[in-house]
Amino acid sequence: MTPTTLLSIRQLQSPHAGPFTLDIGRGECVAILGPSGSGKSVFLRLLADLDPGSGEVYLAGEPRESCSGPAWRSKVVYHAAEPAWWELTAAAHFSAEQGACVQGLLPLLNLSPALLDSDITRLSTGERQRLALIRSLACQPQVLLLDEPTSALDPASTLAVEQLLRSRLEAGLAIVLVTHSEALAGRLGQRCLHMDKGCLTP
After folding, report:
1. Of 25, 41, 87, 154, which is most buried with the most CB atoms under 10 A?
2. Are strands 143-147 and 76-79 parallel, antiparallel or unpaired?
3. Rounded to two decimals, what is the model's pTM?
4. So what CATH class is 5-201?
5. Residue ranges, the chain, pLDDT below 50
6. Which contacts of 80-88 are long-range, i.e. CB under 8 A and separated by 24 or more positions?
């Protein structure tokens, strides 16, 4: 572990994947490529403490066990490939304290504020995907675990997401990016790793 390490992973594993040992620095994006079913999403869920497993994870030197699951997931945010919506509108998923942050992020992703109060089921897949990214960023995470964040987006929307994520990286956010797009991995990732049968390799 170096002074710039933000997320430190030691022998993290489940019956389905691992063990994983990896250090991720502040402002670093580690991109993970690999075929469907190879364990990429399992790895993210292990990091977020959503799936049972063994091993150790440290955030800025503090062990994951030192905080509750919800508190950990507010710092290390898992952004699913198909994010869930449990309220009728996107606005209902944000707290009052997040309002200013949300309003500032909407234009960066080419989204109208009116979409916040629209029936979530009537929005396009791409609109929901970008709103879900705003929901993840509004938590002000230190680490963002992204699972296929641009899979439903057109080129212009993909570019907007990349620009936003690049600015957050420059501000010190660490990102673990799971993607099937080698082009996206090459543009955003400082390191690209490959997952195959539950094992990570350079």
Report:
1. 41
2. parallel
3. 0.94
4. alpha beta
5. none
6. 80/147, 81/41, 81/147, 81/148, 81/151, 81/178, 83/128, 83/129, 83/132, 83/135, 85/120, 85/128, 85/132, 87/120, 88/119, 88/120
